[in-house]
Description:
By secondary structure, the protein is α+β, with helices and mostly antiparallel strands. It has helices at residues 5-22, 36-39, 41-51, 66-77, 153-157, 159-164, 167-172, 209-215, 217-220, 276-283; strands spanning 79-88, 91-100, 107-113, 120-126, 129-133, 142-145, 178-190, 193-203, 225-233, 238-245, 248-255. It contains ten helices and eleven strands. Helix 3 crosses helix 4 (66-77). The protein is globular, with a radius of gyration of 19 Å.
Amino acid sequence: MRRRPLYGLxxxxxxxxLTLAGCTATxxxxxxxxSPAASGATSTAAEKSAADGAGTEAAALTADNFATRLxxxxxxxxxxxxxxxxxxxxxxxxxxxxxxxxxxxxxMDETVTMPGAMPEMTLRAVDGLVYMNLGRLSKxxxxxxxxxxxxxxxxxxxxxxxxxxxxxxxxxxxxxxxTSLEKSGQPETIDGVQAQKYVVTxxxxxxxxxxxSRLGAAGAALPQTITxxxxxxxxxxxxxxxxxxxxxxxxMTFSDWGEPVTVTAPPASDILAGGLDDLTALTS
Length: 284
């Protein structure tokens, strides 16, 4: 059992990276679904607002409509390519992959690169299950994790992974928490798209206790406000986000919005039969 901390490293590295990406991976009520159906009338109203004049001065983005408008635009597209870098204490963790918002269950296929004994791992999420390949450490086999498995304390940590992988949840949780939004400079070209830079200030007391609870002691130490820099296209789609929270710097880019994304579970023959428990035997 001497290698069990390796599990925690995997979960924490991914969970921290994705959670910091939105710093709001859970809504105030802790709900884990953010599909258009789950959003109900809110998404419908937001889609109408976006269609009535997204990106124009007559329908400018404001602190009140920022999260709603951007959420609606992402729901309408349904998929994206995501690239993210998180830097802390001179170390970098990068995430590169694709996400499909689907019909309420996020599907993703991402590669996470980090320093240390586990330099790279591949993560897939399909039908509410997470599959993790740690390369040589798992002998190139996949570990299947059910975040709903209450018998495994580690498995439950991966529920945050699914929440954090959904960019619409990150934005929905900002509703009511954005205290100011300021346009900055002229539009910039990002991945061939003209995107306006906005400085967004968020009141962390309004993003819900569920998020702070997930971070444990670190959640209690969050600053009162967090400032994000967003680059948003005239179609209300996020192209880039940057933030620095207590020395943890994160930048994330989105591209290929709406491009078809297919994520499939690994073949059964490539999945370790014992799940997380098998990893102990492989690395001990």
